[in-house]
Amino acid sequence: MEPALDGKVALVTGGGTGIGRAIALALAGHGAVLAVNYSRSEADAAATVREIRRDGGTAMAVRADVSSCADVEAMVASVVREFGRLDVLVNNAGTTKFVDHADLDALTEDVWDRILGVNVKGTFFACRAAAKVMDQGRIINIGSVAGVSGAGSSIAYAASKGAVHTMTRSLARALAPRITVNTIAPGLIETRWHAGREAQNASRVPSFPAKRIGHPGDIAHLALALATADNFITGQIIVIDGGACLTFSA
Fold first, then answer.
1. Which of 79, 111, 177, 186 is least surrounded by Cβ atoms within 10 Å, i.e. has the fewest?
2. What is the assigned CATH class of domain 9-189+218-239?
3. Residue 195 has pLDDT above 80, yes or no
4. Tell me: the pLDDT tens digits for 43-64?
């Protein structure tokens, strides 16, 4: 049996670390050719590319600040130029700033502009550029449970992820039936944002039905499923948080 994504080309934004890296490796492990995006330091993306190549896969690193429409258009063009097509887009690139929700004055215009620029505009720019070159495509956005609950690192971050969730549904309508658009909304996951908050986060675990914090691989498994699904799954916001959302209502 051929790998599920054999011959397909995937682009993962922010694919050098954490969730993005796990998704890139999972897609490559099932036959996809990978373009691994980075915005500033190439080192992490290059390491992901080396790992894919070491395992017999094909991959390239590609730079773009997703908040720049010109950068995104150039990135997608370079992927198509190198690999001839684009079949899967994973919008994983994102940013935040930890701001106490009660400290409204700390949410400056600069903070808002950067978070919305990367998380919302960047997601849209990438979706639009990819849709122009995809045939039967799969777009997977990375949202957040913060976009459902309103909790999270800051009000601006929660608002940005709520916008991604809404945009997913809008784009699923606009791009159907040729392209599916879905969002994965992770809860607490062990990434670089977890560092320095281990004790605080561990204190929440007993209330989680899963009794653990999530791992990037948990998100990668779901991304792989959406990348290989047919077009009957679209416009969905899939929360993956170990059941933590269940405790909000309780």
1. 177
2. alpha beta
3. no
4. 999 999 999 999 999 999 999 9
